[in-house]
Amino acid sequence: MSVPTMTMHLLGLIVAFCLCFGTAAQAQQDLQAGELLLARAGVPLFPAAFLPRGKVKEEPPVPEKVAVAVTGDSLADGIWGALYRRLVRDKRYAVRRVARNSTGFTTAGLIDQIEDAFKPTPADAIVMMVGANDRRSFFVNGKSKALFATPSWQDLYGGRAAAFMDELKGRDVPVVWILLPVMRDETASRDAKLINDLVRKAAAERPWVHTLDTWALTADADGEYAAYFKDLNGKTRLMRDNDGVHFTPAGYELIAESVLNLLREASPKFRLLPR
After folding, report:
1. Mean pLDDT computed over 254-264
2. d(Cα 82, Cα 51) in Å, to the nearest integer?
3. Burial class of residue 161 (count of CB atoms within 10 Å of its CB; 0-12, 13-18, 19+)
4. Distance in angstroms (rounded) separating the CA atoms of residues 144 and 12
5. Residue 31 has pLDDT above 50, yes or no
6. What do you get for the CA distance between the two ends of the chain, in Å?
7. Top CATH class, 66-272
8. Residue ranges covered by each domain of the chain
9. Buried b (16+ CB within 10 A) or exposed e, 111-133
10. Whole-prediction pTM value?
11. DSSP 205
């Protein structure tokens, strides 16, 4: 007797027994128990013989165009420039400049940037980088609400980062959140680590947010600030700006390439576009 025939025969016997000797509710319970026994015995309930043959999972169509919106502060603006230079000749991409200088989560929630990112048409991905201006206390109506780095400040900052991420959940697009790099000033580096930790904590509970680490990339062998490291071509050159915070064009381009690679991993739309 073939496997499909034997399977149907056994299930038929179970159903008949249940109908003859028990109530309808008991019959349902016994039928489920019988299915479990068959499964444990390695007998498939729906053998391959009953399934359509030669059916292949269909890939979504290759998109004609995708839009990447870059949000955040002046660091993000540098990323926008690098992505634009990288993709400007490829008409399948649109790179939207939404980031603004001298802004951050301590001054605003930045939710308005999300609204701008989806105009005039919905964005297919969001790239975020923020924190360079957030080494300050929270003020509301000119009054201090939370001093920088205190537990209450961390709650407020983490809450605003989480609210930004949650606002994007309903948009159903991947988010690449670029974490802060090593800073030349030791105190600034300490503060950048704190901000990175708060962002990581919020992103860990939100699978649509993908964090991109820049710390190891921007540190030397001793873990200290490095102004020179290898560019996309493997040539060591100046990659950080003179202020010890921002990047040179080559430095932004190196990070932008990592952003695109992460988008290809996270989004079928970007993955389907030929390189």
Report:
1. 97
2. 50
3. buried
4. 75
5. no
6. 53
7. alpha beta
8. 3-50, 66-272
9. eebbeebbeeeebbbbbbbbbbb
10. 0.78
11. T
